[in-house]
Amino acid sequence: MSSTRDTYRVAVACSDELLRAAYELRHEVFYLEQGYDEDREVDSLDEVSVPLVLLRERDQAVVGVMRIVPYPVPREEVPFYTRAQIAGGLLPGRGRSEADMAQQFVAAQTTTLSGSTLTYSGGKLGRIAISRQARGQGCGTILVSAAEQWMISALRAAQRPDGVTHVETKSQLSSQKIALRFYESQNYVTQGATYLEEGQPHIFCVKPLTVYS
User: Fold this and answer.
1) Alpha carbon 164 to chain centroid distance?
2) Class of domain 8-211 as given by CATH
3) Which stretch of DSSP H or E encloses residue 195?
4) 18, 88, 157, 177: least surrounded by Cβ within 10 Å?
5) Are 190 and 204 in contact, with CB atoms under 8 Å apart?
6) pTM greater than 0.90 (yes/no)
7) Helices marked H in the chain
8) Which Gene3D superfamilies does this entry report, sorted A to Z (predicted)?
């Protein structure tokens, strides 16, 4: 007896339906499973992030979610939206097209020019969650790879200064210690020491990406 393995695709959550499903999955994983404060899960960074969802092809269910925050992340205090606000219909980040998000992402970049090499500050991956029913099927790898490719595509479309022949950027994230082995398998390298984030041990990880060469 043979079983058919599920297939998946990644989409940017531009519609209210997908955005709402993304927030619900985050609530399910981060609050119901992992015990994070449900009133400190959705924040104002969701207004400027690129929300990615992983859709199961056979029923179009949202089984994975991630956001890309333009880097560097704003240092000022980031306000949160309560669970009651989200359950009441508030959808931070709604009403944007993928083109809008790409434009905002590029505009938020800081750049460094060294000879003929241009380096963009990149993005920070966060709020990465996979539903229980889809775990163990490579969904995390699909999402991380899609996020990296989205950043590369957005930056490739940006205008390059004259004389630039090589463009690079980086993907960065704050990994839970329990998930570190996965990110290392995706070629992320740790930076610095372990720290607490919402009471859980995390460590910062970085991966260089080539945009154009």
Assistant:
1) 28
2) alpha beta
3) strand 189-197
4) 88
5) yes
6) yes
7) 16-26, 83-87, 98-107, 139-156, 180-185
8) 3.40.630.30
